[in-house]
Amino acid sequence: MAKMTELEKQNARLEKEYYKTHKRIYKLSAGDITFNIINYLFFALFTFTCIFPFYYLFIQTISGRDLVAKGAITFIPRAIQFKNYTDILDNQPILTAFGVSIARTLIGTTLSVLASGLIGYLVTQERMWHRKFWYRFMIITMYFNAGMIPWVMNMRLLGLTGNFLAYIIPGIVAPYNIILVKTYIESIPDELEESAFIDGAGYMTVFRKIVWPLCKPILATIAIFGAVGHWNSFTDSLMLMTDKPSLYTLQHLLYNYLNQAAALKSQMNAHTGVEAEQLTASVVQYTVSMVTIIPILVVYPFMQRYFEKGIMLGAVKG
Q: Which of 3, 66, 24, 43 is nearest to 283 (CA)?
């Protein structure tokens, strides 16, 4: 027992000496402290400038309409209410566009992730017929394209104007995503695939049971890219759905409303029968903008843990 006590004393003494040395080695100088303060202040200010526009937009939508119209809301919300959102969501075109955007994002992102995963795996297999040619054929499309007008003409010839498939088909194969997946798969030890082949597994079995589960970080990364791209896109809707308002995306509708907010204000005031505190053009713009932003803000934090790992491992080599 006495030996244990002596050993404990010796360990405590060594630990105390270690911490003294550690503290002495890493003691901050006045310059280090000044640098840290400036660094923290800079990034705090940078964070504030990134967050404040969303915060400002949000407090405008939940504050009293008369106060917003007077410009009385600057930093603190007043007369809090959520009637702006209920009034906006009672508007049938907005609900329809919201459904189109959600359907487009879910279907388009899912198919893009599946295609990127499968093609990225195939181009890593040396047995694939003319593998290098097909890989380079895909990559060259990142650097050369015909332009907007030929693209619209081509979509029209393919019968994709006024067609929901125009949102889905062009984005299924994304060369940049394939590069990321290919590079990530090349970082997986070859022995895992070889052992599966020895046990009699085919390419699809290896892909489904080994490669796909191991690729979750990079697949989640390209899912973020795809979802944000689909959700925010409005050019294709603007160009291809001019005669099909029922297929407008939420961003396309927001673009129209930002240009025609006064007309929408009159329409919604007539619809809701609001007399005392009518919707103003600015309130309509703020609320519709917030409705388009919220889904991405809600989804992104759940995917962020995969993002850094996936993008770093998928971009080490090409």
A: 66
**pLDDT tier at 107 (50, 70, 90 boundaries)?**
very high
Within 13 Å and on the Cβ side, how many CA atoms surround 138? 21
The reported pTM is: 0.72
Encode pLDDT of 167-218 as tens digits: 999 889 888 889 888 888 888 888 887 888 887 888 888 888 888 888 888 8
pLDDT at residue 276, rounded to an integer:
37
Secondary structure of the chain as H, E, C letters: CHHHHHHHHHHHHHHHHHHHHHHHHCCCCHHHHHHHHHHHHHHHHHHHHHHHHHHHHHHHHHCCHHHHHHCCCCCCCCCCCCHHHHHHHCCHHHHHHHHHHHHHHHHHHHHHHHHHHHHHHHCCCCCCCCHHHHHHHHHHCCCCCCCHHHHHHHHHHCCCCCCCHHHHHHHCCCHHHHHHHHHHHHCCCHHHHHHHHHCCCCHHHHHHHHHHHHCHHHHHHHHHHHHHHHHHCCHHHHHHCCCCHHHCCHHHHHHHHHHCHHHHHHHHHHHHCCCCCCCCHHHHHHHHHHHHHHHHHHHHHHHHHHHHHHHHHCCCCC
Highest mean pLDDT of the ranges 23-32, 114-123, 250-259: 114-123
Domain ranges of the chain: 83-313
Superfamily of 83-313 according to CATH: MetI-like (1.10.3720.10)
The band of 27, judged by pLDDT with boundaries at 50, 70 and 90, is: low
Name the token pair of 217: 């970080």
Say which amino acid occupies 209. K
